[in-house]
Structures are given as C-alpha cells and as structure tokens.
C-alpha cells in the first residue's frame, strides 16, 4: 500500500545522506549504542512481531489492541528477537563446519527446512485425521435439523465430532455447476455470473433464484428439491446485494444488477422466482423488510410469475463456528437469544396483502429453537461465520424445506 512509501523513502533518504558529520544529523542518533543493538536484532524482530500479533488476536478473539497490549507485544517481540539473534542466528553465522564443504552446507539447509516443515506436516496430518474421523461417523451422529423435528429420538454418540470439519467451513458454499445456456443465456454483462442446472428432458418448472449470498446458501435446499421434482434452477447472484426495487440504501452497482435481474426474469418468464424476503441485522432492529422489496417483486407477480420468499436467517456480532470450537457448543455466547436474533413476527406477513402470488417460506423453527439460535444443532455447525448458514446444515433441512415449499405453493 502507498502508506509503505513513508518508511521506505525515509530509509532511502538515510542511506543517501550517509555520514553527515553534523552534531544534529539523524546518523548521529542512529549510531547510538541502543539503536545499533536494535539494528543487530532487526531481522529477528521483523520475523517475530507479526506472528505474535496475529496469534494474540486469534487467542483473545480481538480485532485490535489497546496501547498497553501493543506495548507488551512489542516488548515480547524484542525479547524473542534478542534471544533468537544471540542463540540461533549469530551461532549459525559463526559456525565454520558448514563452510568447509558444500555437502555440509546442504545438510544444514535440509535440517533447517525439516525443522520448519515438521510442525506444518504434523498439523496437516492432524487435520486429515480429524476430517477422516468426521466423514466416517454414522449419519445418526450428525442429524442436524432433523434433531428439531417432533418425535426425534436419536442420540448422537458423546464422542462424535460436529460436521463439517472446521478446516472445511470456508468451502461450505452451495452453487450450481453450469453456465446459463440456450434460451437462458444472456449477453448482459451485469449478469455474466448467471448459472443454471441441467434437468433431464423438459423441466417440470423453472425457478430463478435472485439476490445475495443469503440467497445463494439456499441453493443447497432448492437444488436438492429441484432434483427430486425435475425442476430447472437459474441463479442470478451478486455478493452483498439483496434483491429488491431501486433504493438509495444500495449502491449503484447493486441497483443496476437488480434492475438487470428483473428485466431478465420478465423476458424469460420462469414459473417462479425465489428471493430472501426479509433482512436481518446483527444489532437492533434485528429483522426488517427488505428495502424496496414489494416494488422489486410486484412486476413478477403482476406477470403471473410466482414469488417464493425465504425468511432471512439471524446475523451475529461474533463468528458462531469459532465460538463453538473455542468455548463449546453449549456456551451461552454460542446460543444467542431468539429475541435478539429475529423479529417477534416475520416482516413477510406485511407482504401478504400487497402481493398476489407471493408464497412465504419460514425455516426459522429449524434454525432457532427453544428461545435460542444455536451455533450447533444436531451435532452440525449451523453457521460458517457470523451470518451464513453452512451448506451441510441446510442439506439436513431439505426434507423440511421441501414440505414447507410445497405446502406454501401447492405445487405438485
């Protein structure tokens, strides 16, 4: 970044200036004994300070340091840099044995590399063992949302690990493997991300999914249901761009994308559109209507296109998966109160009298239960971060999603 020009150009100016001979020259200050000693350990200090900062932030779940914490980390970095320089770097530099033969130097290099690679290999092996153990567990140990269904009597093994494995959480995104082709293709550059499934023969229905990452995550459910009923799914998605009519709360790119999506739907006239129809917030008010939602979907319902509205899932101020891993799934911090997560009544209720052909689907009873919204349900991580549901958890909701969708729309 450009900010790095300040120390870089300053260092260059000092080198150009050299020994000025002035009583007040910066070279006189930098030649003082303490700063020369600092220069001696500067490379080790460079190596130590950043890992210490990052590890401390991770361990304490902080995002920044206060003054005293910063000073303590600087002091710790200086101490470690001094010890590393005097007991590792300097002895190695003075060691004459590797300098007599090339093969000896090679041995030292190989041993040093092994010393560094060993912990990395051990860490990766631990992850692989954990992943294998999770994958080998019987389905009964990770029922997910099924554990919230009435009459569920299963009991996961006390030693069973939650799914998915923590290292896999970053990949817990649903998607469709295919570009929009044939009559569903578009030349609009706004919609170059258009994706579509390929059902067998003539699809019974075509559903277009519109919106942001919260719409994308539900592809894990609607995609599975579509396979059961031979429906075609088309996805028009843009990160951080909730679908709705033009509204000043969205940036220009998002409004343009939504306008292009609306035009696409009206031109192609699918059987239905699926959107996320409410908007959750990490702080009060915890759930509101989507800005311009009615204006955004009314052209569809007026054209006879059904609109399926999914209620949004809660957002939090903490990473829920991290919370469960560090504090345990039963920790109060990882089980947020329902009243601090969703509105008492769904904002979708307000759309009913304004839209004909709008079908609300509320899955919140399988995301929050007994007055709380947990990080782990049925031994499955519900969230991959502070607001996105894991693909694995949504897949455990497929039977319930199918039932609610068909009950709302009366589709066969």
Provide a descriptive summary of the structure in words.
Helices cover 42% and strands 11% of the residues. The chain has 412 residues and is an alpha/beta fold. It has a six-stranded mixed sheet with strand order 1-3-2-4-7-9, with helices on both faces. A two-stranded antiparallel ribbon has the order 5-6. The longest helix is centred in the first third of the chain and has 34 residues, at 102-135. The radius of gyration is 29 Å and the shape is elongated.
Average of per-residue pLDDT values: 93
Unreliable spans are: none
Main sheet characteristics: 6 strands, mixed
Order of helices and strands: HHHHHHEEHHEHEEEHEHEEEEEHH
**End-to-end gap:** 57 Å
Gross geometry:
elongated
Percentage of residues in DSSP E strands: 5-15%
**Fraction of residues in H or I helices:** 40-55%
Sequence of strands across the biggest β-sheet: 1-3-2-4-7-9
Q: How many distinct helices?
A: 13
- The class by helix and strand makeup works out as alpha/beta
**How many β strands by DSSP?**
12
Question: What is the quaternary state of this protein?
Answer: single chain
Question: Any idea what the radius of gyration is?
Answer: 29 Å
Summarize this structure briefly.
With 412 residues, the protein is α/β, with parallel strands linked by helices. The protein has helices at 5-17, 26-30, 33-40, 42-60, 67-94, 102-135, 213-216, 219-229, 252-268, 293-302, 320-327, 391-396, 398-409, and strands at residues 195-196, 206-211, 232-237, 272-276, 278-280, 287-289, 306-310, 335-337, 358-361, 372-374, 376-377, 380-381.
């Amino acid at each position: 970044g450009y900010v790095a020009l300040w120390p870089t150009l300053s260092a260059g100016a000092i080198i150009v200036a050299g020994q000025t001979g002035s009583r007040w020259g910066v070279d006189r200050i930098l030649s003082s004994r303490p700063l020369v000693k600092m220069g001696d350990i500067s490379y080790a200090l460079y190596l130590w300070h950043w890992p210490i900062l990052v590890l401390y932030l991770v361990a304490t779940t902080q995002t920044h340091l206060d003054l005293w914490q910063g000073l303590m980390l600087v002091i710790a970095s200086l101490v470690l840099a001094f010890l590393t320089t005097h007991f590792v770097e300097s002895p190695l530099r003075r060691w004459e044995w590797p300098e007599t033969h090339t093969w000896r130097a090679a041995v030292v290099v190989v041993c040093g590399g092994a010393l560094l690679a060993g912990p990395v290999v051990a860490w990766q092996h631990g992850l692989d063992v954990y992943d294998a153990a999770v994958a080998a567990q019987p389905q009964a140990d990770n029922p997910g949302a099924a554990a919230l269904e009435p009459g569920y009597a299963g009991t996961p093994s006390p030693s069973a690990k939650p799914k998915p494995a923590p290292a896999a959480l970053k990949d817990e995104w649903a998607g469709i493997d295919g570009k929009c082709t044939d009559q569903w293709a578009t030349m609009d550059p706004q919609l170059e991300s258009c994706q579509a499934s390929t059902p067998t023969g003539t699809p019974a229905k075509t559903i277009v999914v519109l919106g942001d990452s919260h719409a994308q995550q539900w592809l894990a459910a609607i995609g599975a249901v579509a396979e059961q009923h031979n429906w075609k799914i088309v996805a028009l998605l843009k990160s951080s761009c909730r679908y709705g009519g033009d509204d000043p709360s969205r940036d220009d790119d998002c409004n343009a994308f939504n306008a292009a999506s609306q035009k696409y739907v009206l031109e192609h006239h699918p059987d239905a559109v699926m959107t996320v129809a409410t908007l959750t917030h990490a702080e009060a008010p915890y759930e509101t209507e989507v800005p311009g939602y009615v204006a955004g979907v009314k052209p569809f319902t007026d054209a006879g296109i059904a609109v399926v509205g999914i209620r949004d899932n809660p957002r939090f101020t903490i990473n829920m998966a991290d919370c469960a891993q560090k504090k345990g799934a039963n920790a109060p911090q990882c089980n947020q109160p329902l009243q601090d997560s969703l509105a008492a009544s769904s904002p979708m209720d307000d759309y009913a009298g304004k839209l004909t052909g709008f079908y609300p689907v509320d899955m919140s009873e399988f995301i929050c239960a007994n007055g709380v919204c947990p990080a782990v349900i049925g031994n499955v991580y519900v969230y991959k971060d502070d607001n996105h549901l894991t693909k694995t958890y949504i897949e455990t909701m497929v039977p319930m999603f199918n039932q609610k969708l068909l009950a709302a729309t009366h589709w066969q």
